[in-house]
Amino acid sequence: MDGYSIAWDQVPDTIPDEIKDLEESVTQASSPALDSGDSHYFHIRAVNNAGKWGNTKHWGPLWIDVTKPSEVTNLNSPTHTPSTWSSTPVVKVSWEPAQDDHSGLEGYSIVWDTSPDTLPDETVDVSSDATEAESPQLADGTSHYFHIRSVDEVGNWCDTAAHIGPFWIDATKPSEVANLVSTTHTVSTWSPAPVVKVSWESAQDGESGLAGYSIVWDISPGTLPEGTMNLGADVIEVESAQLADGNSHYFHIRSVDMAGNWCDTATDIGPFFIDTTPPTLLTDLTSDPLPETCSSDAVVRLTWTSAIDESSGLQGYSVLWDRSPDTLPDDTVEIGLDVTEHASAELPDGNDHYVHIRSVDNVGNALDEAVHEGPFYINTTGPEPVTDLQSTSHQKDVWSNDDTVDVQWTPVEDKCSKMAGYSVVWDDQDDTLPDEVKELETGATKQRIRIHSS
Question: Where do the Fibronectin type-III domain residues begin and end (predicted)?
């Protein structure tokens, strides 16, 4: 033996040329760097010292893969959006497989961490047929990433990885609001104002931040507002709509953060007592004396049945005595709710006295009307003197020889006294007060008397 001629190529039956490449003592050979492919062959042919060439021995094919697989494509999350807050701490990702044109894909090395560009190690974590992965429970934070690196069947690792993130995780619920108070009403205290204002200190959230609130006005003490935000995070006060009369109005507020975490509880305030309705008029008003009845007593006494107020309750009455038939008293209470009788002060003589009574409840609601009674006729001094007293036969301070004197007068119209008649006296004094013995009837308007000379 003198040596060998060898050839490396991609043809199964190549005959090496007749040029010696190796000495007869060589028993191994190395190929040049072969390209990736599945048709590489080695051919060897011996030659002796006489220059005679033997038959060729062929070996192959050799499957060579020196090409790294590609990255996965279309890496995305069906559950989360990068740089967007989520309350779900487990992230799912999916992808389309990496490509390898030769030996084929073996699988992937994956990493979940808080770095944007981590290159996973060369340990296969999931097989080549996997197209999705799920994270462990991730802590609250804004820097969660997923990295995936492919490897083929012969151990070629992709030089790079595909990355997705950051995923923002906030699984912690916000706090309740603090210091919830009403700036207009006191809890469990009647008010005539139907609109209630409340204020609070903002709820707290340590990660994604507060998004806002769900609020409810209702008549239940323990309502948990549903998970629909209807108030922004920067709002710290709100007012109700016009609330109906009642003693069971409540306000409830529940916080939610930017990741959609709802506080498990709500903060409540109430009950607010609302009364916008005035009480009724008092009823069954009676008087002593009766209206339009003459009385020599200057005091009028009244009795009645109480007014009714179904909310805050009756506080009492505003009472006014005057000489007008339809005056509306102010809303200042002079008589308490338990009083059902009243006596006037001493009224002056007259036939035009009226009383007006207006109901007022405990929050100051007063009717726009009152009960009116009258007129009361008061006469404590008797009728007024007649008028136009004169003689039709004689003149004053003028001598006359006629001893028969005729006098006449105009009666005083007195609604109260209902005159019974007159007491008269003839004498020589100018200021005599007649006695209290009636000499003339009510209808008399004149008298004739004969005066004897003395």
Answer: 77-175
As a whole number of angstroms, the distance between CA 290 and CA 294 comes to 8
Q: Which CATH superfamily is domain 283-378 in?
A: Immunoglobulins (2.60.40.10)
Q: What is residue 222's three-state secondary structure?
A: coil
Sheet holding 73-76, edge to edge: 73-76, 92-96, 132-134
- Nearest Cα to 285, choosing from 373, 354, 378? 373
Q: How far apart are CA 406 and CA 418, in angstroms?
A: 26
Whole-number Å distance between alpha carbons of 283 and 270: 35
Diameter of the chain measured on Cα atoms:
215
User: Class of the 73-169 domain?
Assistant: mainly beta
pLDDT tens-digit series, residues 157-210: 999 999 999 999 999 999 999 999 999 999 999 999 999 999 999 999 989 999
Angle at 200 between CA 196 and CA 205, to 5 degrees: 145
| Topology of domain 181-274, CATH | Immunoglobulin-like (2.60.40)
Distance in angstroms (rounded) separating the CA atoms of residues 376 and 55 = 154
pLDDT digits (tens, 9 = 90+) for 298-339: 999 999 999 999 999 999 999 999 999 999 999 999 999 999
CA 140 to chain centre: 30
Q: Tell me, rounded to whole angstroms, the distance of Cα 273 from its chain centroid.
A: 17
Q: How far apart are CA 379 and CA 365, in angstroms?
A: 38
DSSP 156-211: PBPSS-EEEEEEEE--PPPPPPEEEEESS--TTSEES----EEEEEPP--SSS-EE
Judged on CB neighbours under 10 Å (0-12, 13-18, 19+), 407 is: middle
Contact between 176 and 89 under an 8 Å Cβ cutoff? The reply is no
Say if residues 144 and 165 touch (Cβ distance below 8 Å): yes
Closest CA to 122 of 151, 86, 94, 98: 151
- The alpha carbon of 333 is separated from its chain's Cα centroid by a whole number of angstroms, namely 36
DSSP tag of 50: T
Our CA angle for 93, 97, 99, nearest 5°, is 150
| β-pairing verdict for 190-191 and 267-274 | parallel
Characterise 298 by phi-psi region: left (phi > 0), alpha (psi -120 to 50), beta (else).
alpha
